[in-house]
Amino acid sequence: xxxxxxxxxxxxxxxxxxxxxxxxxxxxxxxxxxxxxxxxxxxxxxxxxxxxxxxxxxxxxxxxxxxxxxxxxxxxxxxxxxxxxxxxxxxxxxxxxxxxxxxxxxxxxxxxxxxxxxxxxxxxxxxxxxxxxxxxxxxxxxxxxxxxxxxxxxxxxxxxxxxxxxxxxxxxxxxxxxxxxxxxxxxxxxxxxxxxxxxxxxxxxxxxxxxxxxxxxxxxxxxxxxxxxxxxxxxxxxxxxxxxxxxxxxxxxxxxxxxxxxxxxxxxxxxxxxxxxxxxxxxxxxxxxxxxxxxxxxxxxxxxxxxxxxxxxxxxxxxxxxxxxxxxxxxxxxxxxxxxxxxxxxxxxxxxxxxxxxxxxxxxxxxxxxxxxxxxxxxxxxxxxxxxxxxxxxxxxxxxxxxxxxxxxxxxxxxxxxxxxxxxxxxxxxxxxxxxxxxxxxxxxxxxxxxxxxxxxxxxxxxxxxxxxxxxxxxxxxxxxxxxxxxxxxxxxxxxxxxxxxxxxxxxxxxxxxxxxxxxxxxxxxxxxxxxxxxxxxxxxxxxxxxxxxxxxxxxxx
Length: 558
Known about the structure:
Elements: H1 38-46, H2 73-83, E1 88-89, H3 92-97, H4 104-111, E2 121-123, H5 128-141, E3 144-148, E4 168-172, E5 179-183, E6 188-192, H6 197-206, E7 209-210, H7 223-229, H8 236-239, H9 242-245, E8 246-253, E9 256-260, H10 272-276, E10 285-292, E11 294-295, E12 299-307, H11 310-322, E13 329-333, H12 335-344, H13 350-359, E14 367-375, H14 377-393, E15 396-400, H15 402-410, H16 414-423, E16 426-436, H17 440-458, E17 462-471, E18 475-485, H18 490-507, H19 526-530, H20 532-545
Parallel strand pairs: 2-4, 3-4
Antiparallel strand pairs: 1-2, 5-6, 6-10, 7-11, 8-9, 8-10, 12-14, 12-15, 13-14, 13-17, 16-18, 17-18
């Protein structure tokens, strides 16, 4: 294939991408220096020596055998006529970047040169009109379309089915990155779907607004991706999940543009807005979202608290959720995650040890919590005092703002640690769920038991930890992280632990996913969660909306 399409580099379209082999920017990697307790902690708990030479670092890209593109020159020319030829590429690096997300399975396969069914061609539309034209071309030529935002997905929502024989087109939304309009009277903003988190907050901030949505993936994920996966942010206690923030949207489909007007509330039959939220490209390509925005608060602070036990902390989080308080965030780490966080810190506080001894608390059981406050200084002070009373009533005490400020600065850095762990032949990943308060303790215990049984089955020294990440009046989200040394055949070993954890969610009465979406990773449990009838109804909706199975057919329901 000749011409400018074959080797057009990513820079030709000025859309930033994460590194092909891991998370985030190429120049940023996890640095354990300055954390004297961290490396010994990992060695003791997981059995991995992170001081040793890394033995699974990514290979040079040129050493990879990337499957050739099946796209013809005629197709590239046709797409180039829609978007401009500089916005179309079949270059191997771009196709690899768009083949997977950033979950453990994704990174293991891409580092091993196992690319499954990578897209044949990547196109960067610059407007809704161009997206619609690409979908029209796909319908006429029977092409498969996979929408791509920032590439941060970790559940397989971006990969085509392995046996797909048709041409696969990755539609990268990165050029559509503007805040189009702010309705200051209503507190609404129209935003193009390819807008990344930092760009969104920068553009809104210039006018004095914020959307308040800060998922872990904030720096590299997009508004359209948030909607497509029903994302939740760290500050959802105040601002709501993306399902609450999204008031209207526009969806490009082969038959036209579907519009959901931004209304405060409406009674117009089943909610199309709700149907599109979490649809992962199965119904079309989200081009625009109307989001609720808020004035930038006068004052913000995050405070740390320590509880004698997980049960005490859970009781306090529930009491806060049941009160009239509206903190920005409520986060509670269990004892294992607390120990990990303190080990990963720059220094261990001798004063903290003395405090625990004076109170008679078991250092191996204490749980660290963060609560965030925003608003006027008077409002923050009132909220802070009320939370302090709840904390004291549940065997907790305040640690001030220093740890909270550190958490706030480092909150988006954790994925870099996962990649560092992977470099050293470690397996680490996350799973999250949500459930009512009444069954949360049992779900928590059941997940621990399932993971530890999986470690025994594999014959490995594993580690699991958890935190409560989002609180609601009726329940909360539990976010689990597990890690262990690869016993050989890492993908198979990973599947053993991942399946055990996910099955524990279902057995314990939780949801299959709280905010990561379904993709391929969670699809096996969807029928159990939705019921057979619910699963079949959803499958029927997808089949009716996309009878040619051209719209990301591998996601949610295969």
